[in-house]
Amino acid sequence: MKLIGLTGGIGSGKSTIAEIFQTLGIPVFDSDRRAKFLMHSNPKLREEIINLFGREAYSANYELNRAFIASSVFKDPEMLQKLNALVHPAVFEDLVEWVQQPPQAEAPYLLQESAILFEADLASRFSAIILVIAPPDVKISRVIARDDLSKEAIEERMRNQWPDDQKIPFADYIIYNDGIRSLIAQVTDIDRMIRTNG
Question: pTM higher than 0.90, yes or no?
Answer without folding.
Answer: no
